[in-house]
Amino acid sequence: MWDMKEFAEAAGATVDELGAYVDDSQHGVPPVLRRRPPRELADKLGLARWIREGGMTPEAYRHFLRDYLDEGTRLHHPAYLGHQTAAPYFPAALADFVHGAINNPMAIYEMGASAATVEFEVLRWMLATVGFGETGGGVLTHGGSLANLTALLAARAHVAPDAWTDGVPGDLVLLAPPSAHYSVTRAAAILGMGEKAVLPLDVDGLGRIDVAALPAALDRARRLGRRVMAVVAGACATSSGLYDDLRGIGEVCARHGVWLHVDGAHGASALLSERHRHLLDGIELADSVIWDAHKMLRTAGLAAAVLTRRESDLDAAFRQQASYLFYGDQGFDLVGRTVECTKAGLGLKIFLNLAWLGEKGMGDFVARQYDTAHRFWELGRDRPGFDFPYEPETNIVCFRYGTADQAAVRERLMDDGSFHLTSAEIGGVRHLRVTVMAPATDDTTLEALLTKIAEA
Q: Disulfide engineering: 299 pairs with which of 82, 101, 276, 349, CB 3.0-4.6 Å?
């Protein structure tokens, strides 16, 4: 049984240390990241000793947690401009704390009625926001990779309903741009189709699907005797932050009777911003959409939605039997829609952020991050040596500085802990890549980054 006094003391230490950590991070006090070698870090944290001997007390835990936090990557830091991972808002953190204590695996309704009901309502809101309304279906999964896999399972069930029992037909293919997230190819391999079943679509110079060439791509596949299981579009592309023309693609897919899957993991949150929702015009034409909350909805990882225009399509994705789970009325169970059975109460993270900020507050946050990235583009294009291949549409910006080894420039900035940014290829050329995730990032940060890159 829990020692309630010890729990309260340890929880208090957690709040104190996390509060100091986030406050320091938001004000840019420590380095944005440290890169201590794993063996050295394990020794500093005393991991082997704690594992062998145990005996941690609330006070020892406080010191351990302080060291643990100090060695991590500070996503709340203004200089965090790296991967598409949210600087979580505190209500979502509270949800993780609650789930950690109660541990209700709510894919089975009887195991977590409150968590399941919250997820239902969050999904109803997301379905309405995407434009699927009352006819759609949804489920939350632990991450976008599982979400893409689940959506493509629904597409497979639609095209080849016997695949679950008889195996995957050898004539199925996916059509996707080369910029599609790696989880699309991974899903094809997991589904038994193989990586070679993902056929690349024609794209423009920035990696966006060429809508005019899409009918020809569908015809090519059919002439080869292949059935197109789905066309995958990006909203937005992970590398560039640019959106595909969803309306144009959706209209072509509708005319040809082909399933359209939209990977909106990062960019679907722009639906909440009045100034940016036009970027997703036509998303309601999709048959399936994924939307990650742990990117622009400010939740901690992981929480990703799988949304289908027709609820029956999602219900057809899995066909499983287990006498200890599937019996009686399954109307409120979500286990039939997910890979996971022991599924965390993911909806609470999204709900509490919305309960604090509301739709408008969330939309304002998205708009602010997109605007900050656009500001970086404005500041950078006026500096000699910087080259930007496009005007950013989101909070993701790709650019180059001179003829230097861009990856080496990134390593220098990472080594001294001054900035955390990534890189990506655009048109086969390596670029530096900034993703504005932290609310604390401002003009001062952006100017400092541009100066630092030139120096490096």
A: 349
d(CA 240, CA 322): 43
Q: Which residue has the tokens 């630092």?
A: 452
Question: What separation in angstroms does the CA of 440 have from each of 78, 226, 414, 418?
Answer: 5, 50, 19, 15
Ordered DSSP codes for 380-393: HHTSTTEE-SS--S
| pLDDT for 106 | 87
| Token code pair at residue 192 | 């038994």
Q: Cα torsion at 318, 324, 327, 331 (round to 10°)?
A: -60
CB 27 within 8 A of CB 445: no
CATH number for the segment(s) 98-352: 3.40.640.10
Locate 183 and state its tokens.
């989880």
Taking each helix axis as running N to C, give the angle between helix 182-190 and helix 144-159, from 0 to 180 degrees, rounded to the nearest 10: 50
Q: Provide the mean pLDDT of the chain.
A: 95
**DSSP-derived secondary structure letter, 88:** -
Q: How far apart are CA 186 and CA 440, in angstroms?
A: 35
Beta strands in 128-253 (DSSP E): 137-141, 172-176, 198-200, 227-234
> What proportion of the chain, given as a percentage, has pLDDT over 70?
97
C-alpha of 109 from chain center = 26
Residue type, 421: L
Residue 323 has pLDDT above 80, yes or no: no
| Domain locations in the chain as residue ranges | 98-352
Provide the pLDDT for residue 332: 77
SS (H, E, C) 327-371: CCCCCCCCHHHCCCCCCCCHHHHHHHHHHHHHHHHHHHHHHHHHH
**Tokens at 107, concatenated:** 């894919």
